[in-house]
């Protein structure tokens, strides 16, 4: 990732949640349609896979907000370097 991209990412991560969401949506809207379709297909496949794992007892569910907060903290520490 270039220094400019890291700078943009760090600035985006510093935004309040609602504004971060709008930035993500705007970036996705700027993607070519075939790329968006590929992303949506990959997310659907992943969701189906995880639902199956959950039903089989292979994984446990977790509180989404806590997991997102932990992920955001991890991303901030990675991009701070």
Describe this entry's structure for a reader.
The structure is a single chain. This protein is mostly helical and 81 residues long. It folds into two domains: 30 residues; 50 residues, no CATH class.
List the helices and strands and how they pair.
Blueprint: H1 3-13, H2 17-29, H3 33-55, H4 64-79
List keywords for this structure.
mainly alpha, 2 domains, 81 residues
Q: State Rg.
A: 16 Å
The total of helices stands at: 4
Largest sheet: none
Could you tell me the mean pLDDT?
91
**Which structural class best describes the helix and strand composition?**
mainly alpha
Poorly predicted regions are none
**What is the straight-line distance between the termini?**
12 Å
Strand content: under 5%
* H and E string: HHHH
Give the number of DSSP strands.
0
Shape: globular
Give the helix level as a range of percent. Answer: over 70%
How many structural units, i.e. domains?
Answer: 2
